[in-house]
Batch of 4 targets.
Target 1
Amino acid sequence: SHRDGVYSVAPDDVTFKYLAKTYADNHKTMAKNVKCSRFDDFPEGITNGAQWYDIKGGMQDFNYLHSNCMELTVELTCCKHPPGKTLHRHWDANKESLLFHMEKVHMGMKGIVTTKSGKPVKG
């Protein structure tokens, strides 16, 4: 059942937290749990999406379950529609986080599966 406020554990929960914390920890203020409103509470700058607000039938769940694609949502600013003159500040606050996050593409296993004779396995 879908309910806001309920932590939804994924099989890759540890990895999701690691990636989210990589972003938050490299942001200028995100990991400090700066509150944009009195309702905000993001310890260490991260949250579990379903615990924050649950979306039934969302693309993130579909992609994760059916294509092994791990997606994170990043709220770059508290303001839904920031004025253009503030964009440079948001870029400055998020640049290092974005770069550190992109570098994580290199983690994990890599290689080519081969037969005993060293030929690549098709498929």
Target 2
Amino acid sequence: MNQKRGRNFKKQVMINNFIKFPELLIINEEHNNVMKTSEALELAKSQGLDLLVINENSNPPVAKILDYGKYKYEQNKKQKEIKKKQHVTNNKEIRLRNGIGDHDIQFKAKKVREFLIDGDRVKISLKFRGREVTRPDYGRETLDKFFAIIEDVGK
């Protein structure tokens, strides 16, 4: 379902008696020709199947004779496969301070290692307080120490 401005919009499916076109290009195992909609409906009903418009923008619109329940099931199955193959990358952030202790830096490095192994992206931020900003070289030392610990898994 598409969402636009807070409302749910579903693609309208033209099936059987809801088809408004006078002529259709029918695609089937037996037929590949232009037919009147009424004839195509009779043919589909005689086979116990449904008439479904696949592409309404072409001239004449393309329709297919098929079992709509089976078609809908297969479409849902394809969507689930696509979602299953999709990989979501999360962004994680670790905050360090200038005067962080050795144990704390080891613990945060351990967490970063876990995030990177799981395939997440990690942002390291260094926080300065007050006049610490005037000494960026201390911050550089903290970052260098941190990166030395995680250099085997990080870039």
Target 3
Amino acid sequence: MISTMEHISTPKVENVRLLDRFNSRKQAVGTLYLTATHLIFVDPGGKKETWIQHMHISTVEKLPLTTSGSPLHLRCKNFLCVTFVLPRERDCHNVYTSLLQLACPGKY
């Protein structure tokens, strides 16, 4: 049996932007943590935390690379849609593959 921690190759990514789909000027910059059960975004400036349980994630999409970074779009089963922009494509790919395995453990 494979441990869930073995699926996590990048547990922490700094300088991640959380995009607000209603206000493009309001972007939070913080740290993204990937644990065995949750994806956590911490914005130290706005003193805000966003916790997403892996079992609530419906789809994970790695969007095309932009000049500002590598976007990762999550759609959750509770209708939450979140887009994170990670500064490095390699970190984005690692988080993407980890989330695919953690959100749908029977599939991958």
Target 4
Amino acid sequence: MVNFVKRQQHTALKVSWTGDLRSMKRNACNRWYFTFQGQECTNPRTIEGRLHRLIDGNVHGVHTVQGVCYGIPRATISVGFNVGKCPGHILGDAFTGWAYPTTLIIEEIHATKGN
């Protein structure tokens, strides 16, 4: 979790995470998602990426999870990058970051919709 100072009221936050992800376990699904002040974005929707596994294996891959969230007030915002299970699936053995540089970018951008 990191803190980001959002300086204006009528702007949005654009977030991007790039790094290695893995989900192990047959028929499992893991989702990696952003939170703002401990809550998922709802405007316009959650910012997430998912990995579904149909077979066993230890497959790592570089992924990017990114999106824009509107309606966040001007304040110091706690931004989290979390992992959990996909609705309706079992939780896999998730791994975040391994042998690849991890990048987190948070930007305050002018909002053109979603306000």
